[in-house]
Amino acid sequence: MSRTVLVLNGPNLNLLGTREPEIYGSETLGDVEARVRARAGELGIDVDFRQSNSEGELVSWIQEGRGSVVGGIINPAGYTTTSVAILDAILSCDYPMIEVHISNIHKREDFRQNSFVSKAALGVICGLGTHGYLLALEALDKLTATSEG
Asked: What is the reported pLDDT for 122?
């Protein structure tokens, strides 16, 4: 049975590499996806990598993962501090979700420091740049390997 990890990216992450590179770096979302897929291949994990600027679409994708993925990684971006809908979707999913942020949200503006998603996430990785995605993937690999056998 294949292990699939859902990787969801929220609003404006399609602009990585050009949007505020002093905060988010110069890698594009395509670069991040390529790195995640390469590491997942080494771990024997399939990846379903998606990005949306729509809250409802992100909620639907979280729900679609029920029963079909072993874990999820989400960078909710601008929905971090506003989306009770994403919180509720994660609470209702039957798989572990790790929250990732490229920047350290706790060192930024006050309004960015309260994450609804953290209230449902298994863990949070922030401030380590795009490497956080790989750390989250490796954590899910360990978690799902032990749960499968």
From this structure: 96
131 is catalytic: no
Average confidence score pLDDT of the chain: 91
The one catalytic residue in 79, 95, 101, 133 is 101
The amino acid that residue 146 corresponds to is T
**How many domains does one find in the chain?**
1
pLDDT digits (tens, 9 = 90+) for 37-95: 999 999 999 999 999 999 999 999 999 999 999 999 999 999 998 899 999 999 999 99
For residues 72 and 65, the answer to whether their CB atoms sit within 8 Å is yes
Q: Which of 24, 79, 95, 133 is catalytic?
A: 24
User: Residue 102: which of 18, 37, 4, 9 has the closest Cα?
Assistant: 9
Q: What is the CA radius of gyration of the chain?
A: 14
The range of the structural domain enclosing residue 74 comes to 3-148
What CATH number has the domain bearing residue 15? 3.40.50.9100
Q: Is 106 considered catalytic here? A: no
User: Which helix (H) or strand (E) segment is 71 a member of?
Assistant: strand 71-75
Cα–chain center distance at 71: 10
